[in-house]
Amino acid sequence: MPNLTAVSVFLLRGFSTVPELQLLGAASLLLIYLAAILGNMAIVAAVTQDAHLHTPMYFFLKHLSLVDICSVSTTLPRALVATMLGSRDISLHACASQLFAFVCLGSTECFLITSMAFDRCLAIYKPLLYRAAMSPETCISLVSVAWGSGLVFSAFHTANTFSLPFCGPNVIDHFFCDIPALMRLACANADAHEAAGFAVSGCVIMSCFGLTVLSYVRILATVCRIRSTASRWKALSTCSSHLATVLLFYGSGSSAYMQPRTSYSPTQGLVAAVFYSVLTPTLNPLIYSLRNKDMKGALQKLYPRGPF
Questions:
Q1: pLDDT digits (tens, 9 = 90+) for 189-213
Q2: Omega of the bond prior to 169 within 30 degrees of 0, cis?
Q3: What percent of the chain has pLDDT over 70?
Q4: Alpha carbons 253 and 276: distance in angstroms, whole number
Q5: What is the CA radius of gyration of the chain?
Q6: Buried b / exposed e across 246-271, counting CB within 10 Å, b at 16+?
Q7: What is the band of 3 on the pLDDT scale with cuts at 50, 70, 90?
Q8: Which run of H or E residues covers position 188?
Q9: Segment 127-148 mean pLDDT
Q10: What band does 61 get if pLDDT is binned at 50, 70 and 90?
């Protein structure tokens, strides 16, 4: 029987095995990271300072931006420093902590997006009851539930992944500790763990997605009953930014994680993860600032010489 030694340190492959591409990828992602941080910080500052944006929709958007700041900072800074310094090692505990934080923030974003869909649905379907229903207490409760659910969801996936034995090889084909890449390194059959992960993720994600779809079905049904064309477009315009965020989040997330381990490709997984974990947080501020007059106005007040 072979002598199995537990792995205490992993090695992250990074963005590429080619040194030149590593540096090019790191430089590009550094610029994208800075854009993501600055864009989301601008959203948070604008919503905080502009009294016209103290509404439920922008309250949720503010927390979405905070989640995006934390999410992109969980993976990219360490990967960029490792590329620049050539230090690719990460301890088992640090790897588990990174995975926990990344999954927690990703799932919290999923719950927040669902809450935002409910908010838009209520604003259009029951406008007279909207203020009473979406009180500050209700908004705080929804955000608290989103964070609490994210913590529980993340705790399950972290325990489910790191209850597997790792005894070598220890090179992770990724630039951060991610579930599919880690499960490929397990020196035991991971089928049961993968099935459990898919089952829990499927239930949670499909529930959130289903509630979001139902909200938009109700929105469309309500809009179709509006006689004025101008009023229809006005109602739909309040949802366009959120709908774009929904499509971006679920589209990139499903391509990154909704595939079995047997068909997992390191290159494909890396590209999908970059899009999901890096580009999505970067594009969200653009979506909400370019297509939203109130947000553009708040950003112009905040940055009078900015390009808004």
A1: 888 999 999 999 989 999 999 999 9
A2: yes
A3: 92
A4: 6
A5: 21
A6: bebbbebbebbbebebeeeeeeebbe
A7: very low
A8: none
A9: 94
A10: very high
CB 177 within 8 A of CB 88: no
Tell me which residue has tokens 């929804």.
142
Question: What is the edge-to-edge ordering of all strands in the sheet holding 171-172?
Answer: 89-91, 9-12, 171-172
Of 247, 308, 240, 248, nearest to 281 by C-alpha is 248
**Beta strands, E only, the chain:** 9-12, 89-91, 171-172
Cα–Cα distance measured from residue 89 to residue 10, given in angstroms and rounded to the nearest whole number: 6
From the list 198, 213, 215, the residue with the least C-alpha distance to 254 is: 198
| Residues found in the chain | 308
Q: 272-288: per-residue pLDDT in tens?
A: 788 888 888 998 888 88
Q: Is the pLDDT of residue 23 over 80?
A: no
pLDDT-derived band at 1 (thresholds 50, 70, 90) equals: very low
DSSP states along 240-269: HHHHHHHHHHHHHHHHHHSS-GGG--HHHH
- CA angle in degrees (0–180, nearest 5) for 85-39-299: 155
∠ CA 140-145-146 to the nearest 5 degrees? 95
Instruction: Judge contact between 165 and 186, C-beta under 8 A.
Output: yes
DSSP 18-35: SHHHHHHHHHHHHHHHHH
The letter for the amino acid at 20 is: E
Per-residue buried b or exposed e for 199-227, using 16+ beta carbons within 10 Å of the residue's own CB: eebeebbeebbebbeebbebbeebbeeee
